[in-house]
Specification:
The protein has helices at about 5-35, 45-70, 75-80, 90-120, 125-140, 145-160. The protein is mostly helical and about 160 residues long. The chain has one domain (about 5-160). The longest helix is centred in the middle third of the chain and has 34 residues, at about 90-120. The chain is elongated and about 65 Å long. The termini are close together.
C-alpha cells in the first residue's frame, strides 16, 4: 500500500476535472468568436438536425445523472474489486473511482461538443449557450469532492479491517 497517497490521488482528480472545465470554456469562447465572424450559413434541413442533436444532448445529460448515482456508489465499486489482493485494494478502488469520474466528466463535455456541432450546422448561438450551460452544470455537480473521497477511504478501511 506504500504506493497509495490519498492527497496525490485527490489532487490528480482536481487537475483532470479542471482541465476538462478549461477545455469546455475554450469551446464556448471559440464558438462565440465563430458567431461574431458570421462564418456559417444554416443548413437547409435545420429542424431535423436540431431535433436529432437535441436528443443526443438529452441522452448525454440523463446519462450523467444516472451514472453519477451508479458509478460513484461505494458498494458498486467495491463489488467490482472483490478479487483484488488486499495490498492493492485501495489503489484499485480509487483507480476505478477515477475512471468512473472521467467517464461522467467526458459525458458532460460531450454536451458542449454536440452543441458546437449544432451551432456549426444551425447557427443559433442562444441554443448553443443553453446547452453549454447544461454541460457546465453537469460537470459542476460532479466536482470531485474531498468529502466523498474521505468517506470512501473510511468505508474501504472498515471493510478491510484496516486502521489507516
Amino acid at each position: 500500500m506504500s504506493n497509495f497517497n490519498p492527497e496525490n490521488y485527490y489532487k490528480t482528480n482536481l487537475i483532470i476535472w479542471s482541465a476538462i472545465i478549461v477545455g469546455m470554456l475554450m469551446l464556448i469562447g471559440f464558438t462565440y468568436f465563430l458567431d461574431q465572424s458570421n462564418t456559417f450559413e444554416p443548413a437547409e434541413n435545420a429542424p431535423e438536425i436540431k431535433n436529432i442533436l437535441f436528443a443526443l444532448i438529452l441522452i448525454s445529460a440523463l446519462a450523467v445523472m444516472f451514472l453519477k448515482r451508479s458509478f460513484l456508489d461505494f458498494q458498486k465499486i467495491y463489488t467490482k474489486i472483490q478479487d483484488t489482493e488486499k495490498s492493492e485494494k485501495k489503489t484499485t478502488f480509487f483507480s476505478k473511482l477515477r475512471t468512473n469520474y472521467i467517464i461522467i466528466w467526458a459525458l458532460s463535455e460531450s454536451i458542449i461538443l454536440i452543441a458546437l456541432v449544432e451551432y456549426v450546422l444551425i447557427c443559433e448561438f442562444r441554443s448553443f449557450m443553453l446547452y453549454a450551460i447544461i454541460g457546465l452544470y453537469a460537470i459542476g455537480i460532479n466536482f470531485p469532492r474531498k468529502s466523498l473521497f474521505e468517506k470512501h477511504l473510511q468505508l474501504l478501511a472498515e471493510k478491510e479491517g484496516d486502521s489507516n
